[in-house]
Structures are given as C-alpha cells and as structure tokens.
C-alpha cells in the first residue's frame, strides 16, 4: 500500500512524539553524567544496551530470530558494521554535549537528511528531483557560511551527520528482516567485550567514575541501556502505524529541542554567521520536506505488494 494511503493512527503518533522527545532531551541526561569521561559513558552505554536488549530477547522470546540473524553472514556483518558506526556517532555526540557543542550536535541532525539524500545519489545511484538538488546545494552553502563566518569547520555537526547517515545506509541494506531489539543486540554484541575491558581497566587504574561519584551517577550510567533502547523501540512501533511522510516531519522535533537547549539553556555562542548558516539549513529542509510531501501525494501505479 502506498505510504500516502496509510491511515493516521493516534497511538502511533504519540509513540513517535515520545521517541523524538526522548531523543531531544538526551543533552540533559548526558550532562547529568558529566562527572564521567565521555568515553566511559559510551562504554557503559554499549555494555548496558547489550544487557538490556539481551534481556528483552529473552522476555519476548526472540532467540530464534537472533539465531537466524547470527547465522546469516550478510546480516551479521552488516549489523556489526552498523554497530561500529553508531558507536562512533555516540562517542562524538556525548563528547559534543559534555564540551558545550549541543548546538553543533543539533546542526548535525538537521544536516543529516541532506547528507542522506547525497548518499542516495552517489551510493544507491538514485536520481534526485530538481528541488532536492537545490536543497543539497543550499545545505552545502550553509556549511560554508558557518565555516567562514565562525572561523572553524563544524566538525562535530559534520561527523554526526556522516556517521548517522552511513549508519542509516547500512541499516537500509539490512532491510526489514531484523527486529529493532535483535538488531541492536547484534550491533552492540561485538563491541561489548572491548567496552567491558575498557571499563574494567578504568576501574583498576582508579580512573573510573562509576562507583566513585555517588549512587546517582552509578544509576545513571547503568540506565544507559534502557535510555538508548526505549526510544528506538518506540520509534519502531510508531513506524509501523503512521505514514513515513509524517515520520519525516516529526524527526525535526529532536534537533529543534536540542538547538533550543544549546542556545537558551546552555547559552552557547551564536554569532550572526551561525544564525545565517542555520537559516540556510532550515530553508533547505523546508524545500526537501515540501518536495517529499508533493512526491508522496502523486499516484504511483504499481502492482499490489504480496506479503509472505
């Protein structure tokens, strides 16, 4: 069934809003863990996400699905590559939040749809519509304006956009054959032993904050798995209930919230060049969104999809 014919489900809308609101509030969570080193936070995030998802696999009896995914070499290594990319993304994001680059992090997730469109051209060999090309060009101009006017390349934003865009590309290759819970379990499985060894080394050398800064920090680090997995599961549940075009609109809620946190709560510097750059990015996203909505309304003559 074409996406534009998918009925709106109010529960799905609430699930999507909950997911993006939680992602938007991530700077508050990671700021609360700032007594720990960013890489220690990421290490705990990997380990506890694997534990949380592993328990979920047991409770929801997805062992069979997990075995099938691990046995499929293409799926397993695809998800492992996705795990490496998302770990890079987490590391840059947490470092950025803890070092007062929340606005740059928001910029990265504003840029991400434009980078994804670029990947579609150069990797998937898709043809862009004129409005999409204009949007990408305006987005590139925004990066140039910010770089020249602010005096430095917005590397946090670009790194987040590239790592998350490549993560999305790898996940697209995996397709819908893996449930979110099993997917995240496999994504974190290979790196969890490395993360655990790193955390043990920190503890042995006295550099760990896990047990030395009070129960609040200890609980916060241990909850990293649930904090990571719950929005993802909400997102997955929402995706099956509401149209993709609406999900595409709601996704901007997260960087809007994070931008607001960075500017008005964290009081990060916003010179004129940065405002102009952000304005250009927003113009590009409006062009991209309007074009996508128009394309979604066009009738598509295809054979009915057969679901096995």
List the helices and strands and how they pair.
Elements: H1 10-24, H2 26-32, H3 38-59, H4 63-71, H5 73-98, H6 102-122, H7 130-150, H8 155-174, H9 180-189, H10 192-204, H11 214-222, H12 224-239, H13 244-250, H14 253-265, H15 272-297
Q: Describe it for me?
A:
- It contains 15 helices and no strands.
- The protein is mainly α and 308 residues long.
- The longest helix has 26 residues.
- The chain is globular and about 55 Å long.
Termini separation comes to 15 Å
Structural class: mainly alpha
Q: What are the secondary-structure elements, in order, as H or E?
A: HHHHHHHHHHHHHHH
What global shape is seen?
globular
What are the main properties of this structure?
308 residues, mainly alpha, 15 helices, globular, disordered N terminus, disordered C terminus
């Amino acid at each position: 069934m074409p996406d534009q014919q998918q009925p709106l489900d109010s529960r799905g809308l609430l699930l999507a809003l909950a997911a993006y609101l939680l992602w938007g509030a991530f700077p508050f969570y990671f700021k609360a863990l700032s007594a720990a080193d960013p890489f220690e936070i990421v290490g705990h995030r990997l380990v506890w996400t694997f534990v949380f998802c592993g328990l979920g696999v047991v409770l929801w009896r997805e062992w069979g699905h997990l075995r099938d995914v691990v046995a499929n070499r293409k799926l397993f290594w695809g998800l492992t590559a996705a795990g490496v990319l998302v770990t890079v993304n987490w590391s840059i994001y947490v470092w950025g939040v803890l070092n007062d680059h929340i606005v740059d992090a928001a910029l990265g997730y504003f840029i991400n749809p434009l980078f994804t469109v670029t990947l579609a051209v150069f990797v998937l060999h898709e043809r862009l519509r004129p409005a999409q090309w204009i949007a990408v060009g305006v987005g590139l101009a925004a990066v140039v304006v910010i770089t020249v006017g602010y005096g430095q390349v917005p590397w946090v934003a670009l790194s987040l956009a590239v790592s998350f865009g490549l993560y999305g590309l790898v996940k697209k290759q995996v397709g819908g054959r893996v449930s979110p819970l099993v997917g995240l379990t496999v994504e974190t499985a290979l790196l969890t032993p490395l993360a655990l060894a790193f955390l043990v080394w920190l503890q042995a050398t006295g550099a760990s904050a896990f047990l030395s800064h009070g129960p609040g920090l200890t609980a916060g680090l241990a909850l990293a798995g649930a904090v990571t997995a719950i929005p993802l599961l909400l997102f997955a549940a929402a995706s099956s209930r509401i149209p993709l075009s609406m999900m595409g609109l709601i996704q901007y809620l997260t960087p809007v919230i994070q931008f607001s946190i960075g500017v008005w709560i964290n009081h990060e510097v916003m010179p004129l060049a940065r405002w102009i750059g952000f304005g250009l990015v927003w113009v590009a996203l409006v062009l991209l969104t309007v074009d996508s909505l128009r394309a979604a309304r066009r009738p598509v003559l295809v054979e009915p999809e057969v679901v096995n």
